[in-house]
Amino acid sequence: MLRIADTRTGRFVEIPSGRRHLLRICVHLPVTDAGIGAMHLRAPLVGDLLARAAELHGLESLTVLTTPDVPQEQARALDHAMAALGIHPPVTVGVHQATETHCTAADVHVVEYGTAVQEAVGGVRIDVSPVSPAPPDGGVPEGTDPLVVRMLLLGHAYRTPVTVTSPALAEALRTLTHWRQQVAHWAQEPSRPIPADFLRRAHAALADDLGVPGVLDMMAGVAMRADVPAGAKFETFAFLDRVLGLDLVREVGHQHRETP
Fold it and tell me: Cα separations (Å) of 19 from 11, 14, 54, 59?
């Protein structure tokens, strides 16, 4: 069972309630005067992480996305940006006014902090802190792998504001590239089962208010452990990437020099 802190009450709530096996998620995309880019998609990213974590815990999930009323060109750009960031497509997308009925039965509402949502709408509310660029960087440079942005955002609890800087992006790129190379190297060794302790700790972290930063810290520790077989490291990283969505197996099958 997953536990999420309800912003409205400050209390932890088990979701979905009762003994149902379907988690219904409604993500509210904020209205913005500028174009919609990766930095505006933290709420959909958190909704995606929640759905992935639910599925890892044996639950089915259904995600609805409500959006501003934008021109068709911007709607296509939104679809492209979400796909590039590794966000699974929602089952329903529509403007706020037309889709409120789709969200009335949701177990969880994911909104950017400060976004107005009808108080009459039930379910747990998750307020996601915003993402902002640090001057003079101005945001994410053109040509940046969007999954580097995903890696950067995953390193922060969703209630923590994130400032995107060039050094932060560079560090996220370094880590993501290194992990992909390590996974490709480990894949050449015989497979080994995921250590039960690692699996238990990862499940517990994800079930406790989406503790993804704790999962990343655990993975960094696993990668450095000489007593863990390479095959077990590979299976651990590949399994947890079902939630992280970082395409960690991208380099498998390519030739790489050995990485420690």
Answer: 20, 11, 14, 11
Question: In Å, how far are 34, 230, 241 from 236, measured between CA atoms?
Answer: 40, 10, 9
SS (H, E, C) 78-135: HHHHHHHCCCCCCCEEEEHHHHHHHHCCCCEEEEECCCCCCCCCCCEEEEECCEEECC
Tallying the residues shown for the chain, one arrives at 260
Q: Which two tokens stand for residue 73?
A: 């060109």
Q: What digits encode the pLDDT tens for the residues 54-107?
A: 999 889 999 999 887 777 888 888 889 899 999 999 987 765 544 455 677 889
> If you average pLDDT over residues 220-248, what whole number do you get?
97
* Run of H or E including 62: strand 60-67
How high is the pLDDT of residue 104? 79
Region of 78 on the Ramachandran plot (φ > 0 left; ψ -120 to 50 alpha; else beta): alpha
Q: In whole angstroms, what is the distance from residue 69 CA to residue 51 CA?
A: 25
Q: CB 36: neighbour CB atoms within 10 A?
A: 20
Structure tokens at 108: 């969880």
Sheet of 108-112, strand order: 92-95, 60-67, 22-28, 108-112, 124-128
In angstroms, the CA 24 to CA 106 distance is: 5
